[in-house]
Amino acid sequence: MSTRVGIVNVNDYESIPKAVIGAIKLVEDVLLFDFSKSKQILLKPNLLTSKKDACTQPSFVEGVISYLIEKGVSMKNVSIGDSPGQQGKTASDVAEKIGLLEICEKYGIKIVDFERDLPIIEKIEGALRLKEIRVAKAIKDCDVLINLPRLKSHIEATMTGAMKNYWGIIQGGLKAKYHLLGKTAEQFGEVLTDNFSWIVKNKPNRLIIYDLQEIMEGMSGPGGGTMNKWDLILAGTDELALDIVALEIGKVKIKNVPHVKNAIERNLGIGNVENIEIYGMPLEEAKKQTPKFKVPGNTMTNFISYMTGHLAYKIIKKIPDLNKSKCAQCGECAQICPAEAIEFIEGNFPTFSRKKCISCLCCSELCPENAIKAKSRGLMGLFD
Ligand code: SF4
Ligand code: SF4
Question: Which sequence spans correspond to the domains of the chain?
Answer without folding.
Answer: 3-308, 317-383
